[in-house]
Design a protein that fits this description.
Number of strands: 19
Number of helices: 5
Structural class: alpha+beta
Radius of gyration: 18 Å
Helix content: 10-25%
Shape: globular
Bound molecules: succinic acid
Distance between the termini: 34 Å
Length: 266
């Protein structure tokens, strides 16, 4: 296995691994270390069945069916991300529109840790995914601002009401990765609603300031998708956003998800 880091603070290509076959413990450890180091890794030219994708996911935790319900399917842990319609019905979720920065499932009490996306069909233009290194973004904040964020918590909610748990979910604005000890900003414009226990204007001011900071391309790395790609990312130190693509083109990816077994900690 060879790891080729991108020229940004996150993102790396992994060479020499076929994810469709059983892997030895040493390789699995090396892949997880690459995820911790680079936050987002990708393997090109992979051919996997849905069950093989779930088996690969299970090396790093337990693949769990996505909270957003989809049509009954052979491998229920696979979530279809697609704009394709068959007989007038969506075969998957998320359509073709832009998705702004978010960390997967942050509206859940124990949100996503790793997400995996395997590209089956890719449009000729658009649909690129950009990840933000929220560790580097945190590190780049001034000391006073870091101190003023200590102890703050923010509410996270999905815009599809039925997808939210019954209780209101809040998480620390700055979280610490359990395996690396590094701190990251954990707020994003797609799913974070407001900071609790401060007045609405102050919440808006702080979130606006953090979103402008997180929008700095210094912290970003973009993946240009090819059919056969498998991308694995850690949602704890990153957020991601997706560019729109023409609705006349097809984009289809299989996704698996590992949930955290603990709530994010400051
Ligand atoms: C997502 O936000 O989870 C989907 C990313 C993508 O479609 O590239």
């Amino acid at each position: 296995m060879k790891t080729i880091p991108s020229d940004q603070t996150l993102g790396a290509e992994i060479l020499g691994v076929d994810v469709s076959v059983p892997l030895d413990t040493e390789t699995i450890k090396a892949i997880y270390q690459a995820i911790l180091d680079h936050c987002v890794i990708y393997f090109r030219n992979q051919t996997v069945t849905q069950q093989q994708l779930v088996d690969f996911t299970n090396y790093f935790g337990v693949a769990v069916e996505h909270v957003r319900k989809q049509a009954p399917r052979d491998v229920s842990e696979i979530f279809i991300v697609s704009n394709v319609k068959e007989k007038g019905q969506d075969i998957g979720a998320l359509g073709n529109a832009e998705l702004s920065f978010h960390s997967d499932l942050s509206y859940m009490p124990k949100p996503g840790t790793l997400s995996l996306l395997h590209a089956i069909e890719i449009p000729s233009t658009g649909g690129e995914t950009t990840w933000c290194d929220c560790r580097a973004a945190y590190d780049a904040l001034g000391q006073d601002l870091k101190q003023s964020l200590e102890g703050l918590r923010a509410v996270h909610q999905h815009y599809v009401e039925a997808q939210n748990p019954p209780e209101i979910i809040d998480h620390p604005v700055v979280i610490t990765h359990p395996d690396t000890g590094r701190k990251s900003l954990y707020v994003g414009p797609h799913l974070t609603k407001h900071i609790i226990d401060v007045d609405p204007a102050e919440s808006e001011r702080i979130l606006g300031l953090l979103y402008r900071h997180l929008a700095n391309p210094t912290f970003h790395w973009t993946h240009e998708w090819q059919v056969g790609d498998l991308v694995v990312w850690d949602n704890r130190p990153t957020m991601h956003r997706r560019e729109p693509f023409p609705e006349t083109e097809r984009r289809l990816l299989w996704r698996t998800q590992i949930y955290n077994d603990v709530a994010p900690q400051a």
